[in-house]
Amino acid sequence: MKKIIVGVTGASGACYAKRLVEVLSTQVEMHLVHSRTAPLVFHEELGVNLSGWLKEHKVKVHGISDFLSPLASGSNQFDAYVLIPCSMKTLSQVAHGVGETLLTRIADIALKERRKMIMVAREAPYSTVHLENMLRISQMGGIIFPASPGFYHRPQTVEDLVDFVVSRVIQLLGLPQELIKPWMSEN
C-alpha cells in the first residue's frame, strides 16, 4: 500500500484537498499536515469542520509544529507528498529551503530524498516571483500543478471541475482513478 502525505495550506481551494482525501483515504496509507489557517478556509469555503471531518475519514493527522513526528525525518519512507492547495507563501518557502513548519520540512525531505512531490498551486495571476519560485522547485524535481481544470470532459458542475484536477493528481501519483475518462477514451 502506498504511503501518501497530504499537506493542506490556507490557500483557497479546500475543495481539492477534501476530494483527494475522500477518494484516496481508503486506497493508501494517508498522513495529513495542515496549516493553521486551513481549518478556517475549510469552514469558510465548504462549511466543514476540518478536524472532525478528518476523524471521520480516519486520516493520520500531524501537527504543523510537530518536529517529533516521524514525517520530520528523511529516514521515514513515503511514496509521495501532495501540497493541495498550495499557497504561494508555502511554495516560496519550499523554493528557498525554509523548513520552519512540518509542511515545509516534508517538502524539503521530498526534494533532498528525490521523492515525488506535487504542489497544486492556487493563485492567479502569477507574479514573476511566483513563476521563478515554481521554476526553482521544478528544477529540483518537484511537480508544479496549477489548479486549472480542463473542459474536454464537458463538466456540468463545480464538482466535475474539482474532479478533473484531483483525477490528474491521482494519475501523477501512479494510482488508478475513475473520476474522469481520459481524453478520447472509448471507455
Summarize the structure in words.
Helix 1 (14-24) crosses helix 7 (158-172) and helix 4 (88-95) packs across helix 6 (128-139). The protein has a 6-stranded parallel β-sheet with strand order 3-2-1-4-5-6, with helices on both faces. Strand 1 (3-8), helix 1 and strand 2 form a beta-alpha-beta unit. With 187 residues, the chain is α/β, with parallel strands linked by helices. It has a single domain (3-172), classed as Rossmann fold (3-Layer(aba) Sandwich), CATH 3.40.50. The radius of gyration is 16 Å and the shape is globular. The longest helix has 15 residues, at 158-172. The model has no long low-confidence stretch (mean pLDDT 95). The protein has helices at residues 14-24, 38-46, 50-56, 88-95, 102-112, 128-139, 158-172, and strands at residues 3-8, 29-34, 60-62, 80-86, 116-121, 143-146.
> Biggest sheet, strands in spatial order?
3-2-1-4-5-6
Task: Using the coordinates shown, work out and report the CATH topology.
Answer: Rossmann fold
Kindly give the count of domains.
Answer: 1
Categorize the overall geometry.
Answer: globular
Query: Could you tell me the mean pLDDT?
Result: 95
Low-confidence stretches: none
- What CATH architecture label applies? 3-Layer(aba) Sandwich
N-C termini distance: 27 Å
Task: Output the CATH class name.
Answer: Alpha Beta
What would you report as the Rg, rounded to the nearest angstrom? 16 Å
Q: What is the helix content? A: 25-40%
What structural class should be given to the helix and strand makeup?
alpha/beta
Number of helices: 7
Number of strands: 6
- How much of the sequence lies in strands comes to 15-25%
Order of helices and strands: EHEHHEEHHEHEH
CATH superfamily, by name, is Flavin prenyltransferase-like
Biggest sheet record: 6 strands, parallel
